Amino acid sequence: MKNRIRNNIFLLFALIAIGFSSCDDYLDVKPKGQVIPTRAIEFREMLTKAYSNFPNSRGLVAIASDEMDLKTGDSEGLYDYRNIYQWDQNAGGAESDLGYLPMYKTIFYCNYILENIDDAIEGTQEEIDQTKGETYLLRAYSHFILSNIFGDQYQPGTNDQLRTAPLVTLVDLDVNPFPSTLKAMNDSIIADINKGKKLMSVDKQEEAVLRYRFSLNAANAFEARFYLYTGQWALALDAAQKVINNEAYSLVNFASFGDDDVLPTHFESSESILALEKTCDFKIHSAVVASSALTDAFDRTNDMRFSKYLKYDYDASGYKFSGNKVSYDQFKTTFRLSELYLTAAEAAFNLKDFDASKSFLKSLIEKRYTTETVEAEKAIIDNLSETDLKTRVFNERFKELCAEGHRWFDLKRMGKPSITHIVKETSEVSKEFILNENDARYVIPFPNEVVQNNPNLNN
User: Fold this and answer.
1) 412 lies in a domain?
2) CA separation, residue 3 to residues 6, 15, 17, 108 (Å)
3) Pfam families, per this entry (predicted)?
4) Which one of 231, 292, 324, 367 counts the least CB within 10 Å of its CB?
5) CA–CA separation, 220 vs 236, rounded Å?
6) With 50 as the cut, is the pLDDT of residue 19 above it?
7) Is 341 within 8 Å of 237 (Cβ atoms)?
8) What was the pLDDT predicted at 391?
9) Is 102 helix (H, G, I), strand (E, B) or coil?
10) Is the pLDDT of residue 24 over 80?
11) CATH code at 371?
């Protein structure tokens, strides 16, 4: 059985399903000493395993963007991330699959739960429904990340039939999946979001340590991002405002920031909605510096984010992302309130409601600039032209959400501009790599090893 699956199935979750890891107790078959989940609590534990397995795909693909550079002469970083940084999966690198296989492992867990949880015993219907609802959301989010890395930006009615990552919604270890179309993938994602919202009863994960779990507010935040990425502006604005108007969350005010306060990316922050992903983990954090494009975007004197989000590293001769924003487990962040203000600003702009777009921007700026200059900065925003307002919205996303796994996807939505990366082998030896405007490499190819094991991905 093991050999047959290993030879015929390209997804890693097939191996996990038969006991690839000794720490997995919940399996779709029952070897001696292991458990098939039957009780509601066991399905919850299986979902916890799915959450814990969620990979750092957004953080890895950010290395391909213009917000960070590999450190000069960092041989480990060059080895691990060269293929991502050079937009060439044949260049080698330890992180060549961008979390593709672990993501499908998470989807496998989700599919197993959804196929079997209705038969769960020893749990209330509310507990079962909450677990099932979260599972729909986690499956949707996994497919969403895969599609936006390995497929193009979805534009409904325009590129419906372009291919993207496989859509896997059943536990079937004997099938080598084909690529999905963008329409089929995105139809499934929004269907899962809607199913999950109908089942869940938890508005907010009040215990900060449980904020890795989806809630209704996290579902609304996800919905806002989904509609933003697909250009459905009115729906994006509506979903974003549901979170913005929720008194359970508030923007962190840097002007009154004290020693006991935590940055917005901290899982205990008043902005934290879902804290699932460690987007700039310690390994990435150690290998990169902030790009000049990012550091130059800040008003270094009046924008307090500069000193809180970036720290100068004399050894690296550049600005590092602050360890108090990213890197450590307490700074896992998937959705937070600032993103929703920026989503609302962008959506309102595209709906030609420029006053509303400016209002959302000013609400964020008010919490980020020094008290002496914030009113002047808000006046600047009030006087922006339509073209300059659009630029300001994207620049605010660039600064506010830096190192949180957004930039690559924002660049795809901004028209896929050209990017130049310099690989500094040593202080004397450098090589230039260019991603051209509208380059086909903005759609990451499926990992070589995966394609070799599943030729269907060539179709």
Assistant:
1) yes
2) 5, 10, 13, 19
3) SusD-like_3, SusD_RagB
4) 292
5) 9
6) no
7) no
8) 97
9) helix
10) no
11) 1.25.40.900
Beta bridge partners of 38: none
Mean pLDDT of 365-387: 97
Label residue 301 exposed, middle or buried (CB < 10 Å: 0-12, 13-18, 19+). exposed
166 against 172, higher pLDDT = 166
What's the pLDDT score for residue 328? Answer: 73
pLDDT band with cut points at 50, 70 and 90 for residue 94: low
DSSP letters along 291-359, please? -HHHHTTS-TTTBTHHHHHEEEETTTTEEEEPTTTTBSGGG--SEEHHHHHHHHHHHHHHTT-HHHHHH
* 264 backbone dihedrals φ, ψ, rounded to 5°: -60, -25
Give the number of domains in the chain: 1
d(CA 310, CA 323): 9
Give the burial class of 256: count Cβ atoms within 10 A of its Cβ; 0-12 exposed, 13-18 middle, 19 or more buried.
exposed
Q: Could you tell me if residue 151 is inside a domain?
A: no
444-142-412 Cα angle (round to 5): 40
Residue 88 covered by a domain = yes
Written as six digits, the tokens of 77 are: 């970083």
Token readout for 250 is: 């508030």
Cα 141 off chain centre by: 9
The reply to whether 34 falls in a domain is no
Q: Which residues of 162-175 are buried (b: 16+ CB within 10 A; e: fewer)?
A: bbbbbbbeebebee
3-state secondary structure string across 206-217: CCHHHCCCCCHH
**pLDDT at position 11:** 37
The enclosing H or E element of 164 equals strand 163-164
**pLDDT tens track for 343-355:** 999 999 999 999 9
Query: Do residues 326 and 266 touch, judged by C-beta distance below 8 A?
Result: no
Give the residue-averaged pLDDT of 278-284.
Answer: 86
Residue 340: give the domain boundaries: 73-94+232-440
Given a cut of 80, is residue 16 above it in pLDDT?
no
Average pLDDT value for residue range 32-40 = 73
CA 88 from centre of chain: 22
CA distance linking residue 446 with residue 164, whole number of Å: 9
